[in-house]
Amino acid sequence: MTGETERYTPGHDTSAIDFMAARTAATHARFFLPHLAPGMTLLDVGCGPGTITADLAAAVAPGHVLGLDRQASQLVDARALARHRGLTDIEFREGSCYDIPLDDRSVDRVFSHALIEHLAHPVRALAEIRRVLRPGGTVGLCSPDWGGFLLAPPCDDAISAYTRLQQANGGDPFVGRKLGRYLLEAGFEQYHLDAHYERHADPSRIADYLAVQLDTAGQTTHARRLRNWAADPNSMFAQAWVTAVATRPR
After folding, report:
1. Residue 172: burial class (beta carbons within 10 Å; 0-12, 13-18, 19+)
2. How far from chain centre, in Å, is Cα 17?
3. Global model pTM greater than 0.90
4. What does the pLDDT average to over 110-138?
5. Residue 178 CA neighbour count, 13 Å, CB half
6. 107: number of CA atoms within 13 Å, CB side?
7. Would you state the pLDDT for residue 3?
8. pLDDT, tens only, 58-95
């Protein structure tokens, strides 16, 4: 991910990377697994620490998988994970979703999780994804929509502070509901949308993940409010996700 007006809101400190590394294909790419088959080539755009990428590589083996991310430090962890799991048909490259280092019509599948919401130019990125997909190839996207989050007890001020922060950084916390329109604007002709909730079993983890970002932005009052909220034994955080699957026309 890169762009003149973008800043990646979660950052790349240890807490953010650990939070992302807990995600797997089973938890965050299940919707896309039925679209995969052995021998396919797959690109994971915004792959982060590679935990989902590694699972996708197992699903398409012996096909080839490329994980792409703009943050080199995350790719160090991703490569180490691939070596630990004995995955040989997987590679990780530093690069931008706006300028993917692949030829036209060169991959069967593209996956992207928790990326589009951070982009100032989502349609431009989706058009680049369409460029590298083979005709008939499929893309799977998964992004949150903060307009559908469920928190109990309410913590509206702190959550609103976070959504404003993401917007100030060039992202869109409400992008989930817009994925279908953006896919059409990028040249895809058909798409399927779905939505689901992810309930965080330990609300303190998501609260701290968000609070660190607010602290970094100097919004310590809202960060403290989130941490105090998570200390309530009755707290609940359910995150709304929108998934989209679209195919490049033949």
Report:
1. buried
2. 13
3. yes
4. 98
5. 18
6. 26
7. 45
8. 999 999 999 999 999 899 999 999 999 999 999 999 99
Q: Which two tokens stand for residue 36?
A: 């995969």
What is the average pLDDT score of the chain?
94
Residue spans of alpha helices (H) in the chain: 14-21, 25-28, 51-60, 72-84, 122-132, 156-168, 179-185, 203-216, 220-230
* Domain 14-144+171-197+241-247 CATH (choose: 3.40.50.150, 2.60.200.40, 3.40.1170.20, 2.60.120.10): 3.40.50.150
Residue 109 — φ and ψ, nearest 5°? -140, 145
DSSP state for residue 43 in the 8-state scheme = E
Residue 8 DSSP SS3: coil
Overall size of the chain counted in residues = 250
